[in-house]
Design goal:
This protein is of the alpha/beta class. It is built from 11 helices and 13 strands.
């Protein structure tokens, strides 16, 4: 039995929670995955997987094995990176996570990093804020792009590297706009109160971006019964598609406004009263010596070239973007 392979199969099973999908992700057959896990159980002398007609989770002993598996695989990858990297070029896999509202920025960041370090393979996942915290905690993520002023789940500690401030825009039918202009340039500002009574498509309540929007609407004096949410989704792709379909208004951060296709039927308005700005940045585990690949990513995040490029991605109004040192 190859111990590292078996541990990798175990982490894949916990992630996908399905034997077939875990096997597919590991590029092996389902019987091969099951046999490797049974061999791991025999080696450890305990039941690891709770089995029935389908995957039902891990036993308490299996959870302990899983935690050790993640630590061992994490250290194994760090060693591989150290041995494979040169003085100027990092090599290895970088696991990034991003809140959906910052995903376009994270994707551009991945492209920039891979351009500077061709030996780096980036795996980017779109995750909720709690899932980002969990991913950093359980070592399945190396860095996470999200809301750095939000309290971490369960009081977890994290290290942060600020990137930009998120600005918010109302996107609606140009025919419904007030002094509206078609995308991509911003039209006249609207107040959050101007969204009262409009049919909205918003991210789902469990998404932190939705928490920000709901709080701004309350601060703007919009009664709860005047907020008409017609569509909710946890998918940025579905949110953008619904906006572009027309007939519904939405509140989007600048990074998503930039991803909209120009259309004469859509108008974008900066939102004010209140003027909401939310800090977005990279997050990592505290007091951990970064691997070669993570160090390369953090060097890019702090570079003058990347910081100069960020305003074009985050959609901030001219002169309104602020960076934190």
């Amino acid at each position: 039995m190859n111990l590292l392979d078996a541990l990798r199969y175990l982490t894949a099973l916990e992630q996908h929670r399905h034997f077939g999908r875990a096997a597919q992700a590991c590029h092996i057959t389902q019987p091969a995955l099951s046999n490797a896990l049974r061999a791991l159980e025999a080696e450890m002398g305990v039941a690891i997987v709770r089995r029935a007609r389908s995957y039902e989770g891990l036993t308490p002993e299996g959870e302990r094995v899983l935690a050790s598996a993640r630590r061992m695989l994490h250290e194994h990858e760090r060693l591989r990176q150290d041995l494979a990297s040169s003085a100027t070029q990092a090599r290895g896999v970088l696991h990034l996570g991003s809140v959906p509202s910052a995903l376009p920025v994270a994707a551009q960041f991945a492209v920039w990093l891979q351009r500077e370090h061709p030996g780096v393979k980036v795996q980017l996942r779109s995750l909720s804020s709690p899932a980002l915290d969990a991913g950093l905690e359980n070592l399945t993520l190396d860095l996470a792009l999200g809301y750095i002023d939000r309290p971490a789940e369960g009081g977890r500690r994290r290290q942060t590297w600020p990137q930009y401030e998120e600005h918010y825009f109302a996107v609606l039918d140009a025919a419904q706009g007030q002094g509206a202009a078609a995308l991509p340039g911003p039209a006249a500002p609207l107040h959050w109160a101007d969204l009262a009574g409009r049919r909205l498509v918003l991210l789902a309540p469990e998404m932190y971006h939705r928490t920000i929007v709901d709080a701004a609407l309350r601060e703007g004096g919009v009664p709860a019964d005047a907020v008409q949410v017609a569509v909710e989704t946890d998918s940025v792709l579905a949110l953008v598609a619904a906006v572009q379909a027309g007939g519904l208004a939405s509140v989007l951060p600048g990074a998503l406004v930039r991803s909209l296709q120009p259309a004469a039927t859509l108008a974008v308005h900066p939102l004010e009263a209140p003027a909401v700005r939310t800090a977005v940045g990279w997050m990592g585990r505290p007091s951990e010596q970064p691997s070669r690949v993570v160090a390369a990513a953090l060097e890019l995040a702090a570079s003058d070239a990347w910081r100069a490029h960020l305003p074009r991605l985050s959609g901030a109004l001219p002169g309104s973007l602020s960076f934190k040192d």
